[in-house]
Amino acid sequence: MNLLERSVAIIKENQSSHGSYVASPNFSQYSYSWFRDGAFIADAMNLVGERESAMSFLEWGIRTIAAQRTSIEKLLLMDLKDITHRDLLPTRYLLNGRLALDNWPNGQSDGYGTFLWALGNFPDMEFVRGQRSTIELITEYLEKIWQIRCFDVWEENADGLHTSTLLSIAAGLKASESLLERTTLWREIIDFILRNLTINGRFIKSTLNRGVDGSLCWAFYPFNLFGKEEPLVINTLTEIERVLLFEGGSKRYELDTYFGGGSWILLSAYLGQCYLGMDQREKALSIKAWIERHAKPNGELPEQVPEHLLKDNMYRPWIDKWGEIACPLLWSHAAYVTLAVGLAGLE
Ligand code: BGC
């Protein structure tokens, strides 16, 4: 069994009977289902023909959102200026779709955008069309709250507007534009990014940080909101490569201290896909090889690899607090799957 097959098997083994994907089965904090992780995972499963798995996650997501209808409708009636990230839908749920009642930094809006984007990619149109009222509900929700400052895709910095969060929402609203056959606000969000979240011809991480973040590459892959020829994409990737890429492994951002700031499998894989899309196949292959070198002997991929640590004195404290780095991380496997399939497709 190669790492691609093993990855698909690991994802399937860790999909709950409810359809949700656990973020990681072995890590103290990750025994929940995140809309962000799950949407990316479902999309990868769809890509390798595991349509049943993808659909069962999408159904879980639809049920989970529908169960929040009353709070969403209440929020839709609120004055925008009174809304804070504390009013937003949670980022993660129990595997059965119920709310996890704890103090996780939950106010993160990207996952619902990514979910709509994954739904838009799902080929069973009859299934997707049947979800119209929930799609409309979550679309209205995102159109209402996209400008609310919230935690970013790494669950930090609640006081900012984050480029990759907005890209995820724009990708979702672009998808719902075709699903609902009406215009949505995605172009307005892109305009906002262009006006407020670029500098020197490249994207910046957020309104709080002018550096880059590995997740900015989503503008091109997988969301395809910006083309490979666009200077913004080229310049952002050049900067990511300059400051975040260490021998095939990508950091999240320059001052990352989580587990010392290691190299992330999933970000490396998405960067590899960008290279592939830009006809830089050698670079994509070297990232794939880096990921494969860091698979455990049983084929499991971790969330991050503790090498070239940005802040090595922060590695131990995180282990003492939460235990060893999450492994397997389903999202890492999903991102690897997309890269492996992308590369194989061109062979
Ligand atoms: C990451 C999130 C991710 C979560 C579950 C966190 O450490 O920052 O992006 O959704 O883990 O995998």
In words, what does this structure look like?
- With 347 residues, the protein is mainly α.
- It has 14 helices and 8 strands.
- The strands form 4 sheets. A two-stranded antiparallel sheet has the order 1-2. A two-stranded antiparallel sheet has the order 3-4. Strands 5-6 form a two-stranded antiparallel ribbon.
- A hairpin with a 2-residue loop joins strand 3 (198-199) and strand 4 (202-203).
- The site of beta-D-glucopyranose has 10 residues, from helix 2.
- Residues 23, 30, 34, 36-37, 153-155, 329, 331 line the site of beta-D-glucopyranose.
List the helices and strands and how they pair.
Elements: H1 3-13, E1 33-34, H2 35-47, H3 51-66, H4 69-76, E2 92-93, H5 110-121, H6 125-129, H7 132-145, H8 163-180, H9 186-196, E3 198-199, E4 202-203, H10 231-244, E5 245-246, E6 249-250, E7 263-264, H11 265-277, H12 281-293, E8 304-305, H13 315-322, H14 330-345
Antiparallel strand pairs: 1-2, 3-4, 5-6, 7-8
Helix pairs in contact: 1-14, 2-3, 2-5, 2-14, 4-7, 5-8, 7-8, 8-9, 11-12, 11-14, 12-14
Bound molecules: beta-D-glucopyranose (BGC).
Beta-D-glucopyranose binds at residues 23, 30, 34, 36-37, 153-155, 329, 331.
